[in-house]
Amino acid sequence: MNCAVIVVGAGQGTRYGGEIPKQYQRLAGIPVFRHTLKAFLDHPEVSSVLAVIAPDDAALFAQASDELNVRTVFGGATRTASVRAGLAALQADPPDIVLIHDAARPMISKALISRLIANTTAEHGAAPSLNLSDALKRIDAHGMPVEDVSRAGLVQVQTPQAFPYAPLMNAYANARETSAFADDLALAKAAGLNCILVAGDMDNFKITHAGDLERAERVLGVQKPMLTITGTGYDVHKLIPGKAMMLCGVSIPGDLALLGHSDADAALHALTDAILGTIGAGDIGDHFPPSDPQWRGTDSKVFLAKAMVLLARQSARLLHVDLTIICERPKIKPHRQAMRARLSELLDLPLARISTKATTTEGLGFTGRGEGLAAMATVSVQVSAP
Ligand code: MG
User: Fold this and answer.
1) How many separate domains does the chain show?
2) Are residue 209 and residue 354 in the same domain, yes or no?
3) Same domain, yes or no, for 184 and 292?
4) In this structure, are 91 and 203 located in the same domain?
């Protein structure tokens, strides 16, 4: 039996972050796309492999597929258009069955490929599915859970999806040019071509979000040397009479406030700068210029969240935070535990990895005279060695 594989990698997937599309990022030092192609090329029952790529990615693909026996066609604006282009390219020498797979699922196993080929006939296709194990909730526009959704009768469907070639080709030929289906199963079903579900594979996940490459590397058992990097941050804001101040994302009532363009949370500013420091991403003023009116009065958790996003994009993980607040007043001690708890929440870090401290300067200098409050942060992050 002649079995062709279409690997679809024309997307520009930006959800993952990073400079290049996720299918070209490196997994254990090798582009994701190459892992995926090799899984099929190495399978004894696969006759040919065709890659659908974006025209802009031709150079990246040439590098990723160097010395591999793979044909290439350019995809379209939607996944449906890309699969259509792939199927059309097989028309001159039509296979009996075709497997359609996402380039961003590099962990596809030999066993799953075999299972799909064995379960595909001239009458029906086959697709891998997994039962759901987590609870399902419907959420509102604010992301709050509003309703339980029953798992009964629901499964997750992966790729590859396998079909007899001729009826799938017909289904695509008859579908409207502009139609965009979630997957091939949906289009086949709409055209009356049935598909059975076979057991999927938990490891056959799609590289979608930050951290998925590391997860794939753990599954592959890649041992990467890790480095621990330290960043520091320092910030000062002027003390003025007022009713409350924000420090570490906690409101401290009293007769003092901090003067600043945002909410003037010097502790979160120092912490944001420390995190940016670990990845050489400049300082808080580069990302949120004080001259920009849109940051007036902003809750400084916004700045911290941005630094954490940039950290995740570098696949770096925050390990530890040590923060010192320098002032004569207000007294910090009564608020230290609330500050730790708030940082734990904002940083998604266990309490044990967060230290908040305070000191005075014995009446010396601007902090001693009560003119201002200073904060100093030191953070440690873990990154894989280059
Ligand atoms: Mg500041």
Assistant:
1) 2
2) no
3) no
4) yes
Q: Is the peptide bond before 330 cis (omega within 30 degrees of 0)?
A: yes
For residue 235, report the distance from its CA to the centre of ligand 1, in Å: 5
The CA 231 to ligand 1 mean position distance, Å, reads 17
Provide the 10 A C-beta neighbour count for residue 181.
Answer: 18
pTM of structure: 0.61
Same domain, yes or no: 277 and 161: no
Distance from residue 229's CA to the centre of ligand 1 (Å)? 23
Q: What is the pLDDT of residues 244-256, one digit of tens each?
A: 999 999 999 999 9
pLDDT greater than 80 at residue 12: no
> Residue 374 belongs to what domain range?
226-384
SS3 168: helix
Query: CA-to-CA distance for 197 and 193, rounded, in angstroms?
Result: 13
pLDDT tens-digit readout, 162-196:
999 999 999 998 888 777 788 898 889 888 899 99
Q: Is the Cβ–Cβ distance between 62 and 18 less than 8 Å?
A: no
Check residue 296 and give its pLDDT. 87
Rounded-to-integer distance, Cα 94 and Cα 4, Å? 9
Which residue do the tokens 């420091």 mark?
Answer: 277
268 residue type, one letter? L
Q: Are 289 and 270 in contact (CB under 8 A)?
A: no
